[in-house]
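Consider this one:
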Amino acid sequence: MSDPKPAAETRSFEAEVSRLLHMMVHSVYSNRDVFLRELVSNAADACEKLRTLALAEPALAAGDEAFKIEIEADKAAPGLAIADNGIGMSRQELIDNLGTIAQSGTRAFLKQAGEGAKGSALIGQFGVGFYSAFMVADSVTVTSRKAGTDEAWRWHSDGKGAYEVEPVDLADAPARGTRIVLHLNAESAAYAETETIERIVTAYSAHVPVPIVLKLADGEEEQLADGSALWRKPKSAVTEEEYKEFYGHVGGRFDDPAVTIHYRAEGRTEYSVLLYVPSSRPFDLFEPERRGKVKLYVRRVFITDEAEILPPWLRFVRGVIDSEDLPLNLSREMLQKNPVIEAIGKGVTNRVLTDLDKLATDDPERFAKVWEAFGAVLKEGLYEAPDRRDALFKLARFKTTTGGDAWRSLADIVAGFRPNQTAIYYALGDDAATIAASPHLEGFAKRGIEVLMLADPVDAFWVRTALGFDGKPFESVTQGAAQLDAIPALDDASATDEKTSDAALAALAARLKQALGDKVAEVRGSTRLATSPACLVAPEFGPDRQLEKILASRDGAGGRMAAILELNPSHPLIAGLAAQAAEGGAAAASVDAAAPLIFGLARILDGEAPDDPAAFAKALASLMEKTLSGAA
């Protein structure tokens, strides 16, 4: 005679469960939708456990080898049921797994199965997901029959301190597996709506390894998920149409992806990747949060799209990263900083940069469109990630003073160096048109030197921290003394241009410095000017003129360093003033009157208003009066 079954009994939750359940409901989860994700994940675990065990004991799954998860709603009750035909639970397992907070059957199974179970798509390593059901339910009933046994048990609780366990007739139990019935509270009746269930399953569980079906009121079934994940398939098994359809789904985009990155990483850290580089710029690319849109899955279960896996300067990338062994915190909503997430981020970043470099080599026109859309963001990495600078320099493209509409690489620019050129020159500004009109470029154009035109705000920062490219330093055309005399001009006739003598220019410079005082740090001759009479440049050490403007606009007016006033010794105006300075007397005094005009003109050419508009206007009016009276 067999032993009689234990009678129904009421047991208390362990570990002050009332307080812990209250924390679970009100603190751990910020989004109530995740309860269904957790229950579906547990059901998928149960199926995967049995799938693994059945490899050694086929009889456990005999007669019902097609695993699936069924969801059934009852709007009248309202109620919701989630059933699986997985491993099921015995009486003791119901007590151990559902009666003790943080007691995880999955964790125990992993320990028992060893490393051989690593790839069996198990989830739920913290044992608390089940209790999220009490966020939406007044009470929960679990009926389970363990595979290979002839006993079934029912577990029931309202989550307020105790639970009941009792035997149940096999006729009232699933043939194998577990059925969970949630008696929804009044605030959660919407979870019994078909549309709500479809939305949650699509968002969180569409790619779990077990098919999910929704049982409809008319007895029909609607498949919500087919148990497959596109990123888990080999590339040879995925069509271009499937890639594009998934791109639209995961990225919310309607354009075609410029780059599709699909691979699986194996080794100490295992993960699957399906990422896309869009072909057009999203509207929120420069939002202050600068957050990426890569969705993180753990063994095909959606966790979050707010994980900071890729750096901010790759925030335009869309897609999925699915980890096999990423540790999670209790709610799966907040990721811990740990070596696994760092390793994934480093590996995926490497692959994105490698694939972009391959595109740049294989299809320059297509890459140019990518750079047009996202180059300003990628250049943030030149400033924020010095260790990635070499890889990003290979990708970087620039508009230049001699390149026309083409995007030029740094390698192209270095290859086109003029004789005796030793530096890569750049000009900063608000836009390419403004930069191209700058007087600072005249001497460089005269010599055929290609200059980078940098119009993105981040450019002013990375060029200061970058040591150079291919052994060539970066030098601003508006800072320091431009050493251009060693580089020959394109037109030899230019060498015959009349110039003010060094002595006369030095005397004029001294007179102007005395007249302008602290407004300028120095007055000197220039090799960077060809047609303009004067310009302002930044000292050798300190911020570039454009960077000063950016910092001043951010921090308020603030103090700015006095600029250096450079004079064009070949310009007739400078020659005339030098001659007057040399005459002395009244003629020299006119140089003092012209000083604010020269300084104001240099500021205007630099894109700024005169420092003293009233004084500039007065001096200009006085000069015009003298000119007109002289003409009369």
Remarks:
- The domain at 9-225 is CATH 3.30.565.10 (Heat Shock Protein 90).
